[in-house]
Amino acid sequence: MHMPSITANYLAILALIYAALALQVIRLRWSSKAPFDDGGDENLRSAIRAHGNFMEYVPIITLMVALLEMSGASVLRIHVLMGMLLLSRLLHPLGMYAKPGSRKFTICRGGSIFLTIGVLIASALTILSRLPWAAMAEEMSEQTIATIEFLQVIHVILTL
Q1: Radius of gyration over every alpha carbon of the chain, rounded to an integer in angstroms
Q2: Mean predicted confidence (pLDDT) in 92-115
Q3: Would you say 106 and 83 are in contact if contact means Cβ atoms under 8 Å apart?
Q4: What is the spatial distance between Cα 145 and Cα 151, in angstroms, rounded to a whole number?
Q5: Cα angle 49-52-57, degrees, rounded to a multiple of 5
Q6: How many helices (DSSP H) and strands (DSSP E) are in the chain?
């Protein structure tokens, strides 16, 4: 197992994007004098959702990719997964500020959703495919048999 340095490098870039999203929310809260909600400001609402959406997806995906990297997944796979996540996180805020129904809105929001969910599912399935399912199933069956045998012994003792 090794340090997930590829994931860490992408995460550093993602952290800068997250900081920019946070600063945008702060700037818009200040200018619209809305310290707790969106104050009815559409731009602030979009900024809050872009910031929130980032936090909803990036941590779990990054954690899964880091685990894959640490478990020896190929360098190419890690770059593809993290590159797609990075691209999706760049597209999403652009779509959030575009006029609903516009080409930019559709491409950026739709593209970011497609990429984000794709990376989420690909990472999860890759992790699941790497688990030692046969060994786990064998261990579970052995434990089940031992439990049944133990319960039979208890039953015999209690019925004496």
Answers
A1: 24
A2: 90
A3: no
A4: 10
A5: 120
A6: 5, 0
39 to each of 29, 36, 55, how far by Cα in Å? 8, 8, 22
Q: What one-letter code names the amino acid at 76?
A: L
CA 49, distance to chain mean position in Å, is 16
For residues 18 and 54, the answer to whether their CB atoms sit within 8 Å is yes
Token code pair at residue 78: 């890690």
Structure tokens at 29: 């809260």
Q: Pick 90 or 146 by higher pLDDT.
A: 90
Residue 87: Cβ within 10 Å count: 15
| Ranges 4-8, 82-86, 93-97: which has the least confidence | 93-97
> Where do we find the tokens 């600063």?
23
Residue given tokens 């779990």 in the structure block = 60
C-alpha 134/C-alpha 128 separation (Å) is 12
Structure tokens given for 62: 């990054």
Please give the Cα distance from 85 to 118 (Å, whole number).
Answer: 9
Instruction: Give 121's contacts (C-beta < 8 A, 6+ positions apart).
Output: none
pLDDT digits (tens, 9 = 90+) for 121-138: 999 999 988 888 767 778
The whole-angstrom separation of Cα 49 and Cα 148 is: 52
Give residue for tokens 């208890």.
154
